[in-house]
Amino acid sequence: MIKELKMMGDQIFLIVTPPIGAKDASYEDFKKVRELMEDGNHELYNGCTKYRKLSYIVRLYHVKVLCGAIDKTFSIIIELLNDAFPYAKLPTSFYEAKKMIKMLSLSYEKIHACPNNCMLYWGSLEDEKRDKCKKCNMSRWKSNENDGGESHVTDFQKKKKPKPAKVLRYCPLIPRLKRLYMSPKTSKLLKWHARVANPDGLLRHPRDSKAWKDFDSLYPNFASDPRNVRLELATDGFNPFETLSSTYSVWHVMLYLYNYPPWYCMNQTSLIMSMMIPGPKMPSNSIDLYLQLLVAELKILWNGVEAYDSSTNEMFHMRASLFCTISDFPGLDNLSGWNTHTLFACPSCRFDTESKRLKFGRKNCFMGHRRYLPLDHKYKYNKHSFDGSLEFRSSPAPMSGSEVLEQIEEYSRKRSRDEGTSEECPL
């Protein structure tokens, strides 16, 4: 439906044509976006060349978010602007401005979670209506410490809407990927990896790696369409209060699109915020509880969804896959479930890890790294520079996906049998 959508400075230029092969559901979606763009493409006022209506509202909303202004402050500012510039095409209230931005389908969802990271009140109607956690029996809502007990609670306080104890903010992935293909600029950049050849064969982009090529050989149907998206996931915690005395930790999950060229894929404007996991403590191994929302969308994207490519003006079947994850070593513990702070911390050597405990340093050190060298390498025969032994073993074979799944299921069965024990497993 959108044939050309360009943004030069703060101006949006739009040419609208019906897409080829559009279906009913997709047609309605594009119709809403078309109407929004047509309305937002108007000049802010007659003769204004710097701002368009939509771009100016987005800039105002951006200032509100950066400065932490409340909704009432934003409404007062809009009223003042309308009073001073009655000829400008501005919304009359904050509600109208937010409604206009919401039509871009780039909002987030608030999902209640157990404070102990036991469950999400999501997935089934029964879980969504629960008031207590089905595992730890903790209340879903915050307790009002000023009530002074149940006997002092008034009828007005009982009618007040309770506040959730913990809220996960999740940004849906599918509408964001669809919006990227609605812009001719990003649509062309998402196909850069297949359109531009590698002149010298050096590793300059993930598409030049062995992992990318192996994935293409395993899933040729996915690789046949360059518009299919390959994602990278990264997660880490940070202190939102910027004070060393506070131990409050919030974890964010970010997604990067490896379809983009190398100078574009790591830009701040190119990343996708997937979710914000609230504190006060890190989710640790319970992070998979929150990632199940992203996994549910990735399953849908693996089968494919209908999307519109504005650079070719046609509908296509868009698929996506999680290509890899990037994290530090403690973060690997959370994402994979492999215990990285024991004698079996190496995820490559696994149970064949050679580890020693330093007597005075009181830390674990890991040996056996010479196994990964070629068989004729000189370091394999150099015992004086290492631990006094020769190394003739080959590198350990990587585990297959079925072997990893079998190991996880075995540990899950063992944990269910020995519930309440303090025994830890590397998985």
TrEMBL record:
- Cited Pfam families: Transposase_21
Lineage: superkingdom: Eukaryota
Basic and acidic residues: which segments have biased composition? 410-420
Region feature Disordered, mapped onto this chain: 394-427
Kindly provide the name given to this protein in its UniProt entry: Uncharacterized protein LOC101499793
Which organism was this protein described from? Cicer arietinum
State the gene name recorded for this protein.
LOC101499793
